[in-house]
Design goal:
alpha/beta; Carbamate kinase; 19% strand; globular
Length: 242
């Protein structure tokens, strides 16, 4: 049952998902069970009264930089990567709507046959009406990552926070999957992330979030219910703020 969101610390959030998060244990593509489970998490948070928008990467289908390194022109490779994010957005929309969650996909590259074009005021209105909005095709420009697109859309939507879902429960000094001595950060400053070159998000996304005063919360997508705990100001996560 939906609530009014009075117990939420963050009432409007952008959730950033990597394309790889949708793969599960596969080498590429989508794992329908994983997509469905993520959709359940999003549905649960929406029922708390939280307004949610998403940006999903395209690395599970196409990674522009690696292809460009093999000789393809970078601009072309990046546009192909943007199209991959549209495919992921449509898959997530299908999973959410199968669970009764009204969803809209808005693409920075117009493709009226399959989704809406990105229009800021329309997106805001969708969120106010309780619809999940998935922003696809990055910023619509090459040379910008989906991290930067997420920070840009979070700024345009006046989000209270940007949540980055990962495989681990925050930011560590090293990869905890490979280094058992890696230490977890409870909080970080934007400047420390930039100075220490911590792999939270790319520098453009960190800088834009800092300039707009949007906290970045890094949490584990693989912990059931953690998304809901984080928007309540609880849960285990690393908070990047001023």
């Amino acid at each position: 049952m939906a609530t009014d969101g009075s117990d939420l610390v963050y009432k409007r959030v952008l959730l950033k998902l990597s394309g790889e998060a949708l793969m599960g244990d596969r080498d590429f593509g989508l794992d329908p069970e994983v997509v469905s489970r993520i959709a359940d998490e999003i549905k649960g948070v929406r029922e708390l009264g939280c307004e949610i928008c998403l940006v999903i990467g395209g690395g599970n289908i196409f990674r522009g930089v690696s292809v460009a390194a093999k000789g393809m022109e970078r601009t072309t490779a990046d546009y192909m990567g943007m199209l991959a994010t549209v495919m992921n957005a449509l898959a997530m929309q299908s999973a959410l709507e199968a669970k009764g969650v009204p969803t809209r996909v808005q693409s920075a590259i117009p493709m009226a046959t399959v989704c809406e074009p990105y229009i800021r005021r329309r997106a805001t209105r969708h969120m106010e009406k309780g619809r999940i909005v998935i922003f696809a095709a990055g910023t619509g420009n090459p040379f910008f990552t989906t991290d930067t697109a997420a920070a840009l859309r979070a700024s345009e939507m006046d989000c209270n926070a940007m949540l980055k879902a990962t495989k681990v429960d925050g930011v560590y000094t090293a990869d905890p999957m490979k280094d058992p001595t890696a230490k977890r950060y409870e909080t970080l400053s934007y400047q420390q992330v930039l100075t220490d070159n911590l792999k939270v998000m790319d520098a453009s996304a960190i800088t834009l979030s800092r300039d707009r005063g949007i906290p970045i919360l890094v949490f584990s997508l693989y912990e059931p219910g953690m998304f809901a705990q984080v928007v309540r100001g609880q849960g285990r996560c690393t908070k990047v703020t001023e």
